[in-house]
Amino acid sequence: MARGTGTSPSGRPGKGPSGLGSRGGGLPAQQTGGSGELIGREGESELLRDLLAAQRLITVAGPVGVGKSALARAALTGRPRQGTPRRALRVNLAAPSTARGDSGAAACVRAALHGGGTLEDAAAALTALSARRGRGAETLLVLDDADAVHRACQRLLPRLLERLPTLRILLTCRQPLGLGQEYVLRLAPLDWRPDPATGAPAPAVRLLLRAAPAARARRGGEEAAELAAEVCRYVGGLPLAIEQAAHQLLHMPLRTLAERLRHRQCWLTKPVAGTAGPAVPARHRSLRQAVGAVYDLCSRTERVVWSRAATFAGSFTEATAVFMCAGGGIEPHQVAPSLARLAALGVVEPLGDPGGATAPRLRMPPPLRDFGRERLAHAGEFDVAHERYLIHGRQLTAVTENLWSTGSQPHAVQLLREELENVQALLHQPPRGGEHVAGLVETVLNLWFHWAVHEAADEGREHLRRLLPQLPPDSPLTVRAQWLLAWLTARADPQGAGALLDEAWPAALLAGDDAGAGRVAYVQGLLALQHGDLGAAAQLLDEAADTIPAHSFGGPSAAAALAVLALLRAHTLHPAARTTARRVLTDPALRGDTWACWMARYALAVHDARRGREAAAHRRAERLLAVRGPSVVTARQTTALRRTLRDIERGRTPATLPPLIPVSHAAPQLPEVTTRTAAS
């Protein structure tokens, strides 16, 4: 193991031997602030200067384009600490030419690491170099971009340090050597989110705005800052990519750049020579070329796993990676070691605590994901990977819906929260045929609780509007899609929602679909409640509770219908309000629905308050607000509960019900609906 590290477990720089702390970030050498320090790397620069005075073997590690070489140059050009070697020999292991000045020693070191020379020759050259500089003078050997000779460094550098007591080594590499005497300073990508305490621009945004030519990105105020943050997010906060993106502002406005980078990143390039500082290295002239240098270090198996795992738009687990990557010459047991190697190279990033109780999740930065997808298309595997991605999405959403319907609703919320980016990316893909349309519709329907309960109505409605007209009329999914679309559009277009329900009702009856008929009645009850027709709402909700079978999947349960009915009865001082709510909480067939139980307890609090039992109502409301963990209710419902609690505390009767229909932020255009008659 490495003896020290310059980052915390979250990837943020931590405290080194001098006790300095720093924040994550990084950028190319020429992008500096007014003080000459790298933007966003001020802490790391100071820490590295301290390490150069105290340690003999230091590795600056991090993913491609994070600014490892830039940080090494900045630390060497700044004011050195006492004890730091006065002279440095820099060997660029990625460059064919030798270093300027001490070319003989640099050539011997390069030859030894590449296998064309011996350790003795390198040691002799370094000894002679040290002697020319004065007796006892220390030499700092800087080995830049050592990934291609990683194993040679592991084998030779400890022996070189043992032979030369006055030698110190600074190494830049994507992965540490793993030596006992090694101190590792890990660099993380720049953060693009503003400081939550002060609102100050993030380091990534400051870098982009400073590097933008002719101040083009600096105009526009808050909107420009938001677009700049989007650009930095799309390139994963990598300083190399941020600087290349800034160069593109010569040719396009910031909004156009953000839109292009949202889909692809590897097209970014940079001119051969910068306006300041040294010429751009060949490997940094295009983002595709920089990422390709990492690709060249991988074995065939690792390359295949990389390209297939690039299908994921968000984070993923090892198990889902095995499902996506195995086959076609890749055995399942080969996926995990390949992911470990890719993580060491910075191709995938571990999220959270790798030693935690839950399975660790991995994420691929956007530029590396874009490169992997290019390789996947080049190999002719894109269609197969897309089909697997659809299967994975259907299975995943089926599991979340199953968890919700069987009483594990907090777990369903947590699982969907982790996989939401992958599901959203899947649903935004255009359908490729009848079976594909059915698969996408089923995926949307499995997430009914996300769209309706957690108020993602706009997104769910748009998916159903696009996909429902492509379903066959006799599809068993049609009724489910109609009542869900009606629920999602009820607030913005109640008339269109009613037309959808009028079509779904006879179809459910003719098909003998009790669950579908009951859910149509449930949404009709919510519509009546929205119109203020409390009598019709109570009748429809009661009908829904009686019609929806126990333990049925695919929509709100009978317990949910009873809980809404209890809320309505509590609000109207109905004598059966308490009995209805207690039935939800005590019936073994109903009490497993956490969402329904929350509403039933809310109903009891309202019932107690309206009956004059303020103390009991206050206790019930406080207990509901004290629930921790993944919430199964929305922020609007929690706000309504807080308002009810304030009314109780002030001695007022709660006057409003919690929101039961999701908010729609735009009036929808519903598909054409042909209402069937009772005879049909």
From TrEMBL:
<feature type="region of interest" description="Disordered">
    <location>
        <begin position="1"/>
        <end position="38"/>
    </location>
</feature>
<protein>
    <submittedName>
        <fullName>ATP-binding protein</fullName>
    </submittedName>
</protein>
<keyword id="KW-0067">ATP-binding</keyword>
<dbReference type="Pfam" id="PF20703">
    <property type="entry name" value="nSTAND1"/>
</dbReference>
<feature type="compositionally biased region" description="Low complexity">
    <location>
        <begin position="1"/>
        <end position="12"/>
    </location>
</feature>
<feature type="compositionally biased region" description="Gly residues">
    <location>
        <begin position="13"/>
        <end position="37"/>
    </location>
</feature>
<dbReference type="InterPro" id="IPR049052">
    <property type="entry name" value="nSTAND1"/>
</dbReference>
<keyword id="KW-0547">Nucleotide-binding</keyword>
<dbReference type="InterPro" id="IPR027417">
    <property type="entry name" value="P-loop_NTPase"/>
</dbReference>
<dbReference type="GO" id="GO:0005524">
    <property type="term" value="F:ATP binding"/>
</dbReference>
<feature type="domain" description="Novel STAND NTPase 1">
    <location>
        <begin position="37"/>
        <end position="174"/>
    </location>
</feature>
